[in-house]
Amino acid sequence: MRGDAMKDVLFESQIDLEKCRKNFSICSQTEDKTNKTKVQKSFTYVVDRVQGPAPVAKAPIVFIRKSFDAKTRIEEFGFHVRGYFVVNHEDILMKVLFHHTLDIQIKWKAKDFSPKKSASLT
Q1: Which terminus of the chain, N or C, has fewer Cβ atoms within 10 Å?
Q2: Every domain of the chain and the residues it spans
Q3: Distance between CA 117 and CA 70 in Å, rounded?
Q4: Is residue 45 classed as helix, strand or coil in its secondary structure?
Q5: CA–CA dist 29, 9 (Å, integer)
Q6: Which of 84, 33, 76 is nearest to 55 (CA)?
């Protein structure tokens, strides 16, 4: 564990019973000598009653994004998953739509932040 790192964590929960929606978010921010990191995680669920036969299960859709800006020394990574699953609740089929996200932003402080060469490469 880094002894001089500072970390802030925020947890937020939103529930909307009228729209049958739940959202949970966790945001954290860490700062140490080399970088400043922001991590945002969110989990959203929307429940809807299934009319007719159960829908055919499909694989979730996955979005991955990574970028790096050499001028601002900001590295970003995004991972998003969307999909649904069906549950049986008191003999009623319910379709649960979900959207999970993980977004990471790293702001490097040093101007020379490239990793050192591995000993096996030299």
Answers
A1: N
A2: 6-108
A3: 19
A4: strand
A5: 7
A6: 84
